[in-house]
Design goal:
Distance between the termini: 52 Å
Order of helices and strands: EHEHEHEHEHEEHEHEHHHHH
Number of helices: 12
CATH topology of the largest domain: Rossmann fold
Number of domains: 2
Largest sheet: 6 strands, parallel
CATH class of the largest domain: Alpha Beta
Shape: globular
Strand order of the largest sheet: 3-2-1-4-5-6
């Protein structure tokens, strides 16, 4: 069933995600701050572009956003030209940005006052997951809103889970990033140890990847890590943004994130090496 949707933010994630919506037959209007990106998208997928978020949202049943941070989310949804100003009662907003639980709750409250549904729905799977339509989505919001949006999100997802009320999608994404940080650091140290010990890394990985040490990072990044190749997606700058959100939340809820604090400092060292845009597996570079 075709749905009229708007997609705001055509970065490395949003561009292919909006494309999957168009390919599924939905009526898609896009907006991007760099207008040429929206023009390219329309040339490729045949949708429409708008001059601003409110214009894109006009008449949309669901407005998707995928931008940079809390300030960007607030601007494109609640700002003077924000999407909510072009929406009608009964429409939905689905925010795929990795942002704070605080901004999710704020927008949920404002949207509810206007009888507009809201979901915070951050993503896992990176650029490859977006391009292949195989994203994992962690969702916060109301059950009814979730059920209305789920079938549309299915266009670019392999798994969609409602975690809890507004903000819980973002909190789950923080858990995801905390876990990834530890796994990548462990893999970096293990590979560096293997090198220092004179081991054949191929044989080591062949052996341990079949046991308890196995991980997605090991299966997909060990070889590029030992070859100093770090051009495979999620950038160090973005990871530090995400870890900063998790660390700020931990200061509020009292959780101890000792390992996360340490790995965040290690990523700062990678940035000092010039690795701001290297992918997260570049932790091995500092070793």
């Amino acid at each position: 069933m075709s749905v009229r949707v708007a997609f705001i933010g055509l970065g490395v994630m949003g561009y292919p995600m909006a494309g999957y919506l168009a390919k599924a037959g939905h009526d898609v209007t896009v907006y991007n701050r760099t207008a040429s990106r929206a023009v390219d998208w329309c040339d490729e997928f045949g949708g429409k572009s708008a001059a601003g978020p409110a214009d894109a949202a006009q008449g949309a049943h669901i407005v998707f956003t995928c931008v940079g941070n809390d300030d960007d989310v607030r601007d494109v949804i609640l700002g003077e030209q924000g999407a909510i100003n072009g929406m009608s009662a009964g429409a939905l907003i689905v925010d795929h940005t990795t942002a704070s639980a605080t901004i999710a709750r704020e927008i949920h409250a404002v949207a509810a006052d206007q009888s507009i549904g809201f979901l915070d729905a951050p993503l896992s799977g990176g650029q490859a997951g977006a391009e292949n339509g195989q994203l994992t989505i962690m969702v916060g919001g109301d059950d009814g809103v979730f059920e209305r949006a789920r079938s549309v999100m299915d266009c670019y997802a392999k798994a969609i889970t409602l975690i809890g009320p507004a903000g819980h999608g973002q909190l789950a994404k923080m858990v995801n990033q905390i876990c990834i940080a530890g796994v990548v650091q462990g893999l970096a140290e293990g590979l560096n140890f293997a090198k220092k010990a004179g081991l054949d890394a191929d044989r080591v990985i062949e052996a341990i990847s079949k046991g308890a040490a196995q991980s997605w990072q090991m299966e997909n990044r060990w070889e590029t890590m030992i070859n100093d190749e770090f051009e495979f997606g999620f950038a160090v700058d973005w990871m530090r943004k995400d870890l900063a959100i998790a660390l700020a939340e931990a200061r509020e809820n009292g959780a101890k994130l000792e390992m996360t604090e340490l790995v965040d400092r290690f990523y700062a060292e990678v940035q000092e090496l010039g690795g701001n845009r290297w992918d997260t597996s570049s932790l091995i570079a500092r070793l």
